């Protein structure tokens, strides 16, 4: 019995020790989990620098190119984490896509858009904001682009950390402007271009919000508030899908395919009109079949908008990858060309290896760091369902077309977030209007107090103020940071 008691005590001690080790392993895994994503990102950034050294070949400038590639990869990661949320957030917030599904679709379509229809020329970055000939030597130009790339990446990283969707285009613009001013003074900046960019701070969100609110009003008045919602949906949902198809066809022609073939604005509209008409005719029997047996209630309408919303999110991701990959690799391409050919004022072509850094950086950034912004855009500004999210996605494409027609520079981030604001504020106005109409023949009720009025708000004011403040300070903050980094880099690296 004594031996059995001794064995039992040994086993109990062993179980306790194993339990402690197990608890230690779980604690270690829990503590290390936040470091996994930054670790993968660091490996990607280092591989980008190593690949750049191999691709650039044996040259005395290989180390500088590697450093620029590291900064470019870092910027691409931040664009994926911040910008792509604008395309996928509404679909996730409306529960049309899971977080994993949204990330998978966005990663595929962002990469495809960047590689298939990504920008060959980034003239605004290389010549539109700061005249390269005013900066001086090739070496100074390289350090200016390096500072612009790093400053814009740091600013977007900070914005992602605080949960503010900002324009990566404006971040890069601010970085180039700040480095240009530090290198050659205020006279080097094209101030008319900067004025139009500043005007887009107001134009983009307002236009996006108005168009999104207009489509939501149309859906409510023609479908949701009708006695027979399903019969109304059979008529109008194919029309809305046709409008979406036409808008995205024109959008992709303007922002993506025009980089492959020469497409005028009129031709893009013709392509959109033709495809929109065809899709409208095709979807009439599809929606009729899909709506059979549905109950006459708002919940049933979500089924009819689910697939179009997913498709629109995928198309927005493709167009974003095609259009905004230059934000990540534009300054890098300018550096590669300046060091390779010695020309800083020519059109900047983006080599394939540079495009790969940008394309895969967008996807990695979305996968590793995107969920936070996706949740904020999709559910924390205002509550979205498939109909409201559909209005946001459709507004993004329509606003780009209208802005292109008017010749206005716009930001895809500002458009998407402005559209969400527009949907939320329209819901507030519509709810108040219907409440007043319902109380028209009833006795006067006491006016609700400030707390009750605040509770009824459908748009979170704190997010409105945070995002608006981030938008306003993006260009000056990126410019100031870029100027400081330019001074630091030139002090460390010298004139060469």
Automatic annotation (TrEMBL):
Start and end residues of each stretch annotated as Disordered: 437-456
Alphabetical UniProt keywords: Membrane, Phosphate transport, Transmembrane, Transmembrane helix, Transport
Family matches, as Pfam families: PHO4
Principal location: membrane
Regions of compositional bias (Basic and acidic residues) in chain numbering: 444-453
Gene Ontology, cellular component aspect: membrane
MF-aspect GO terms: phosphate transmembrane transporter activity
Source organism, top-level taxon: Bacteria
GO aspect biological process, one term: phosphate ion transmembrane transport
Bilayer topology: Multi-pass membrane protein
Subcellular location: Membrane
InterPro entries per record: Phos_transporter
TM regions (residue ranges): 35-56, 62-80, 92-117, 140-160, 172-191, 197-219, 231-254, 260-282, 303-322, 350-369, 389-406, 412-429, 464-486
Family of the protein in this entry: Belongs to the inorganic phosphate transporter (PiT) (TC 2.A.20) family.
Protein name according to UniProt: Phosphate transporter
